[in-house]
Amino acid sequence: MERPSFRLAFLNPRYWPLWLGLGLLWLLVQLPYGVLLRLAQGLGWIFYHVARQRRAIARRNLELCFPQLDERARDRLLRRNFASSAMALLEMAMSWWWPRRRLARLAHIEGLEHLQAAQRDGQGVILMALHFTTLEIGAALLGQRHTIDGMYRQHKNPLFDFIQRSGRERHNLDATAIEREDVRAMLKVLRAGRAIWYAPDQDYGAKQSLFVPLFGIPAATVTATTKFARLGRARVLPFTQERLADGSGYRLVIHPPLADFPGESEEADCLRINRWVERCVSQLPEQYLWAHRRFKTRPPGEPKLYPKKRR
């Protein structure tokens, strides 16, 4: 995709409310990092009470994935998750607008040698990540140290799309944004020995998925990781990130490449990935994106697991 460019049309009055909101967000994230962490607690309380539909989805996911917790424990976890989601909004703005040096001070990166080894060998890398609330800032921090490409879905609002892409790509001056459906472009960059951020942990429907257990529930799991690794002749490097509890920043870990991947079957690969998802999410449940309807696609004949959307 071509790099974004500013257009005079963005000065049209219909964009003024968005400009105002972005301006206020820019001002807000000039505060010290510790203050932003505390501010996210208050914003999370507001989001918890206002975003009723997302709260219902997240609560249902926690019921499905952590049935061993009682209702009070799940509610505490849910409230912490909303605070984490509020911090994600601030982290998005930090990654777009903070000076690079200020941002870099928050990074604690481990395992960079695995990316560098693949680059030396001329092999592409699928940087297999998860939809944690820290995904935006995690990609920015890693992008300062190593070029990574990313799957991208164009935003409906062209001004927001311009701001978002400009903010993301400033950390990766030679990075490529690949349309999520453009498989040919994905394989091309993998075969060129580049690294691509890719997360296989969401429900994209039954067409390109297999039903394998996730937290004991049959979940539509994409087989694309296997296909991309095989056709792109790429290594799969799990990538995890966390917001550190002591307020010192973010721990990013690039794990060693998966051995014997692809495996004997797509189903075995999907099961292996879902078990990895379970382990990572169970370690940091408050920082995971629970507001996604992960189990919306059901096997034939099985009942829906979420209430109908309110109109």
UniProtKB/TrEMBL annotation:
Motif (HXXXXD motif): 131-136
Subcellular localization, as worded in the UniProt entry: Cell inner membrane
Pathway: Bacterial outer membrane biogenesis; lipopolysaccharide biosynthesis; Glycolipid biosynthesis; KDO(2)-lipid A biosynthesis; KDO(2)-lipid A from CMP-3-deoxy-D-manno-octulosonate and lipid IV(A): step 3/4
Sorted UniProt keywords: Acyltransferase, Cell inner membrane, Cell membrane, Lipopolysaccharide biosynthesis, Membrane, Transferase, Transmembrane, Transmembrane helix
Primary location group: membrane
E.C. code: 2.3.1.241
Residue spans crossing the bilayer: 12-29, 82-98
Coiled-coil segments on the chain, per record: none
Annotated GO MF terms: acyltransferase activity
DNA-binding keyword on record: no
InterPro entries (UniProt xref): LipA_acyltrans, Lipid_A_LpxL_LpxP
Catalytic reaction annotation: an alpha-Kdo-(2->4)-alpha-Kdo-(2->6)-lipid IVA + a fatty acyl-[ACP] = an alpha-Kdo-(2->4)-alpha-Kdo-(2->6)-(acyl)-lipid IVA + holo-[ACP]
CDD domains the record matches: LPLAT_LABLAT-like (cd07984)
Pfam families, A to Z: Lip_A_acyltrans (PF03279)
Entry membrane topology: Single-pass membrane protein
Similarity remark: Belongs to the LpxL/LpxM/LpxP family.
Cross-referenced PANTHER family: LIPID A BIOSYNTHESIS LAUROYL ACYLTRANSFERASE (PTHR30606), LIPID A BIOSYNTHESIS LAUROYLTRANSFERASE (PTHR30606:SF9)
HAMAP family: Lipid_A_LpxL_LpxP
Cited function: Catalyzes the transfer of an acyl chain from an acyl-[acyl-carrier-protein] (ACP) to a Kdo(2)-lipid IV(A) to form a Kdo(2)-(acyl)-lipid IV(A).
Name by which UniProt lists this protein: Lipid A biosynthesis acyltransferase
Organism: Pseudomonas benzopyrenica
